[in-house]
Amino acid sequence: MAVPLLVRVAGVCWEGCRVPGSVSRAAATPADVRRARAETATNLPAALVALWSVRDGLLTESGVAVYSAGDIGERNATYEVAQYAPGFLLIGDDGGGRGFLLRADDPESAVFSSGLGDLEPADFDVVSADFASWIESLRPAPSC
Fold this sequence. Notes:
144 residues, alpha+beta, 6-stranded antiparallel β-sheet, two-stranded antiparallel sheet, disordered N terminus
């Protein structure tokens, strides 16, 4: 099933595109965001909160997920991010064992990628200079 996708983060806008298999999600509520802050015990990057204010998480056609406010605490706890990568926040994954992370204390954080079995920050790869650029890179081809 394909559903319309609308995302606005730092000027990035996807309108009218269809992402097969994507689940339509309303915006996260303020209570969802407060719970996510409490569960992760970190600062939530403003760009991520901005995404949640429009759409509570993403799932792209290629399988990349950006976690919802309701899922982010559980994912960070499951992968013990606070223990193995203090100061980082796991924000999504590729569905194949790689996670995407941001520095929780840096509003301009690059987006990092790492195998979920090795959350050693020294081994992280930079996949984008910032969250908005990364979201833009996930955008479906213009033919949508």
